[in-house]
Amino acid sequence: MRMRRAFSAVALSAAMAATFLAGSSGSASAASSDCKSGWVCLWDYPGYDGAAWSAASGPGYYTVGSKVRGKVSSVWNNTSRTVYLWSECDNSIVLGPGAAVRDLSDYNCGGTVYNTWNNRVDSLDIV
Ligand SMILES: [Ca+2]
Predict the structure, then answer these.
(1) Where are the domains of the chain?
(2) Ligand 1 centroid from CA 19, angstroms
(3) Those residues with Cβ within 8 angstroms of residue 72's Cβ, 6 or more apart along the chain or in another chain
(4) 19-54 pLDDT per residue, tens
(5) Alpha helices by DSSP H, 1-127
(6) Class of domain 2-126
(7) 101 Cα–ligand 1 center, Å
(8) How far apart (Å, rounded) are the C-alpha atoms in residues 89 and 72?
(9) Which UniProt keywords are listed (predicted)?
C-alpha cells in the first residue's frame, strides 16, 4: 500500500520533485562528515562512503539522483524530520530525526524478488 502511494506521488509531483543535489562535486567519494545538518544523505557503499547525494530538509517527495538511485547502501537522516525510504520492496524504511542505516543489507525487503534493501532505494519522503 505504501508503495502504491509512493508511485502515485511520483506521477503527481513529477514537476516539483526535487532532484537530489550532489553532495560533492568532482570527488568520487564523500564521507559522513560531508552530510550537512538538515540534509538526508545517501551513499553507494555501506558505512557512509561512496558517491553521496543529498536532499534539502524541506518536506516533500524526492527522487534519488540517477548516479546513486538503486545503488544506495547506507543513509543518514541528518534532519529534524522523519524520512520514509521507498523502493520496489513492499515495505518502507522509516528513519526518525538523526537516524542512520550503516548497511541496508541488514534490512529485509518486504517484496518477493529481493532479499534485502541493499541497492534498492529510489525515492524518499521527508515529512
Ligand atoms: Ca551500493
Answers:
(1) 2-126
(2) 19
(3) 42, 43, 44, 64, 104, 119, 120, 121
(4) 344 333 334 455 677 789 999 999 999 999 988 888
(5) 2-12
(6) mainly beta
(7) 13
(8) 14
(9) Signal
